[in-house]
């Protein structure tokens, strides 16, 4: 419910002797739309990492041929409608994995994708391989998530090994743009650290995705532009002590962050503290602005 802040000091009270007009009530700053658009950018960026992780295990990894993305239904989240194309694994040069979602590929996470994602590996063949650096691209800018166009200007994923409290860790640098289906636009650059909190298997086996959990922290900045043309820059901070968590045991709710706090600050406005909860599998969050709390539903 919208609240109003009333001007209560005597110096600003209406008076025919002192003022030619009354000062109107000031409407509280309760704009949460930019924060939700940023959360979408965060989710789409993280999804690319997860898609590449899982696709790299399809049909016995890099096998030099095209294959339908079937994998093992016990851990395959993104369904069997995507087509994978691998080049031959050669440790002396970069290797490429292409994931083609066609015109409409409904994933098990509840999202529908179309278009192509490309992953270029500099070393090894899996995200779990320490030292591996992967470059992500959207050739032809054909990649869409739920009718939102996602364009990768640049994106790299570097496997740092078990450097965060013994957990497998990646550093992810991203520069992406999202043209939303509602005509809003988000331009977004970020440096994030991703930590595998659950799901790593012994003996270098594939990650157990149905039971996986990841934590994310770092910084981002960008611009949120509304359909009418007004723009607002922003910065984002996610502290390691309050990192965002995605829990893949949550089924369709695994598409959302279910835990953690993100500080979203639009230019010239107070910080919005976006709290995704304490781990419950849902699409609910709260946004706190100037001490006022708003409930939001994530999409």
Which properties best describe this structure?
299 residues; two-stranded antiparallel ribbon; disordered N terminus; 18-stranded antiparallel beta sheet; mainly beta; globular; 44% strand; 1 helix
How large, in whole angstroms, is the Cα Rg? 22 Å
- The H-and-E topology, N to C, reads as EEHEEEEEEEEEEEEEEEEEE
First and last CA, distance: 20 Å
The major β-sheet equals: 18 strands, antiparallel
Shape: globular
Count of individual helical segments? 1
- Helix-residue proportion: under 10%
- Record field, number of beta strands: 20
Mean pLDDT, to the nearest integer, reads: 79
Residue stretches low in confidence (pLDDT < 50, at least 5 long) are 1-26, 59-75
Beta-sheet strand percentage?
35-45%
Q: Helix/strand-derived class?
A: mainly beta
- Assembly of the depicted chains: single chain
Textual characterization of the structure:
It is a single chain. The chain is mainly β and 299 residues long. The protein contains 1 helix and 20 strands. It has one helix at 33-55; strands spanning 4-5, 26-27, 66-68, 83-86, 95-100, 105-106, 112-114, 116-121, 133-137, 144-145, 148-164, 167-179, 185-198, 213-225, 231-238, 244-247, 259-266, 272-278, 284-289, 292-297. The protein has an 18-stranded antiparallel beta sheet that branches. Strand 6 (105-106) and strand 7 form a beta hairpin. The relative contact order is 0.14.
């Amino acid at each position: 419910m919208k609240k109003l802040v009333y001007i209560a000091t005597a110096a600003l009270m209406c008076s025919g002797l002192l003022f030619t007009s009354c000062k109107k009530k000031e409407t509280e700053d309760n704009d949460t739309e930019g924060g939700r658009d940023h959360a979408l950018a965060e989710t789409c960026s993280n999804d690319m990492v997860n898609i590449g992780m899982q696709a790299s295990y399809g049909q016995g990894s890099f096998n030099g041929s095209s294959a339908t993305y079937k994998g093992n239904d016990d851990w395959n989240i993104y369904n069997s409608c995507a087509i994978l194309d691998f080049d031959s694994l050669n440790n002396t040069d970069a290797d490429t994995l292409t994931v083609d979602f066609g015109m409409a590929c409904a994933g098990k996470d509840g999202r529908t994708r179309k278009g192509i994602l490309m992953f270029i590996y500099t070393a090894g063949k899996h995200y779990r391989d320490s030292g591996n650096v992967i470059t992500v691209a959207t050739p032809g800018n054909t990649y869409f998530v739920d009718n939102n166009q996602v364009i990768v200007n640049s994106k790299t994923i570097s496997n740092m090994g078990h450097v965060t409290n013994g957990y497998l860790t990646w550093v992810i640098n991203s520069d992406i743009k999202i043209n939303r289906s509602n005509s809003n636009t988000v331009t977004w650059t970020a440096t994030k650290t991703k930590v595998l909190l659950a799901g790593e298997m012994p003996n270098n086996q594939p990650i157990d995705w149905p039971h996986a959990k990841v934590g994310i922290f770092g910084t981002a900045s960008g611009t949120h532009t509304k359909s009418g043309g007004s723009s607002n820059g922003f910065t984002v901070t996610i502290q390691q002590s309050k990192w965002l968590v995605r829990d893949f045991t949550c089924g369709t709710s695994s598409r959302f962050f279910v835990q953690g706090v993100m500080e979203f600050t639009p230019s010239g406005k107070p910080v919005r503290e976006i709290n995704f909860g304490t781990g419950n599998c849902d699409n609910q969050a709260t946004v706190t602005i100037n001490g006022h709390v708003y409930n939001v539903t994530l999409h």
